[in-house]
Design a protein that fits this description.
- The protein is an alpha/beta fold.
- It contains 9 helices and 15 strands.
- It is about 30% helix and about 20% strand.
- The strands form 4 sheets. A 7-stranded mixed β-sheet has the order 9-8-7-10-11-15-14.
- Strand 7 (about 120-125), helix 5 (about 130-135) and strand 8 form a beta-alpha-beta unit.
- The longest helix has 15 residues, at about 15-25.
- The model has no long low-confidence stretch (mean pLDDT about 95).
- Bound molecules: S-adenosylmethionine.
- S-adenosylmethionine binds near residues 148 and 177.
- The site of S-adenosylmethionine (SAM) has 16 residues, from loops.
């Protein structure tokens, strides 16, 4: 069964097939930039885990007892090919992958606000290595599609899921810009860590609205500035050293964007300051991290002098 079959007849199968095939031709080129991730995937996909646990903070795919010492060392080496690991933690056949982000903290903040996932068709936009897709599995969704244009994250997810063996999880090399190919297709969409990278955030929210089935839900999580005024910061070049950042809203501004895009029951259910406890360098991510983005003389400011980042979480419904 191809993943397109999970979607209504109304979707343009021909256009989606063409795009999918074009992306596959691109990613299957014999070029260094692809092979550096495809070869580790080809090695790792040979392993099939007996023990899988997505209920704990650390996602476990296989235990140390399922492989020998030589295989475990090789698994570690191949997993390192996907560095820097941004999302985790994972434990893969006894190899502990401590990623830059403690992603379980984000999941624990939003899990009690989720609608029932049982039997649902779900999209995770910018799914990275699929940490949150794996976290959804205990709730028995029918199918989850991860949109992820990065080749590194694409093969990292494919490796993890080949070992985990969930046949109702798929990733494709798609971006938010492809949402229009999926009219009224999803019961639930996650948009986390994405909206401040978009030049037209309200247009994006309208695209999400159109991709939801009537009655469907959206979970949005975003970097934010502190405060309750309906304002958004627009950095001159970077925000917390991150280029490609456009509008960084307060929770209130994001709520207003959702309302203006047509959503109902908009609920700003969590906001908190970001911290180096949650985002930090590790053995699996050796580059700069949160503390390098903040003014050392004033933790309330970024290095550019902007208000230091918060995170906000909102849920919303399409009527
Ligand atoms: C800040 S990370 C957020 C990851 C994850 N959703 C989370 O909340 O932890 C942004 C992710 O979006 C992906 N991305 C980049 N461009 C994208 C696009 N045009 N559409 C969807 N995702 C994109 C990146 O590769 C990366 O995995």
């Amino acid at each position: 069964m191809h993943y397109f079959d999970y979607f209504p007849q109304a979707i343009d199968h021909k256009r989606l097939t063409e795009l999918h095939q074009q992306k596959q031709r691109w990613v299957n080129q014999q070029k260094k930039g692809f092979l550096r991730y495809r070869q580790p995937y080809e090695y790792l996909q040979k392993f099939s885990a007996d023990h899988i646990d997505c209920t704990a903070d650390t996602i476990t795919i296989g235990t140390a007892e399922e492989v020998d010492t030589h295989q475990q060392e090789e698994i570690r080496k191949q997993l390192k090919a996907f560095m820097p690991w941004r999302k985790g933690p994972f434990s893969v056949f006894g190899v502990d992958v401590d990623a830059e982000w403690r992603s379980e903290r984000k999941w624990n903040r939003l899990k009690t606000k989720l609608p029932d996932l049982n039997g649902k068709i779900i999209a995770d936009i910018g799914c990275n290595n699929g940490y949150y897709m794996f976290k959804m599995m205990p709730f028995q969704p029918r199918f989850i599609l991860g949109f992820e244009p990065s080749v590194q994250h694409y093969y990292c997810f494919k490796s993890l899921n080949a070992m985990a063996g969930f046949d109702n999880l798929t990733i494709d090399l798609l971006g938010v810009e492809h949402l229009s190919l999926f009219p009224e297709s999803f019961d639930l969409i996650f948009l986390m860590g994405i909206i401040y990278h978009r030049i037209s955030p309200v247009e994006l929210l309208k695209d999400l609205y159109a991709a939801l089935k009537p009655g469907g839900s959206l979970i949005v999580e975003s970097q934010a500035i502190p405060g309750t005024e309906p304002l958004a910061l627009f950095p001159e070049k970077t925000y917390a050293k991150v280029p490609g950042t456009y509008f960084v809203p307060t929770g209130t501004a994001l709520k207003n964007w959702l309302l203006r895009a047509g959503f109902s029951s908009v609920d700003l259910f969590c906001s908190h300051p970001m911290s180096e406890e949650e985002q930090r360098p590790t053995e699996w991510m050796v580059f700069e991290s949160f503390s390098d983005y903040i003014d050392p003389a004033n933790p309330e400011k970024t290095v550019e002098g902007y208000p230091a980042p918060w995170r906000v979480f909102l849920s919303a419904t399409r009527l």
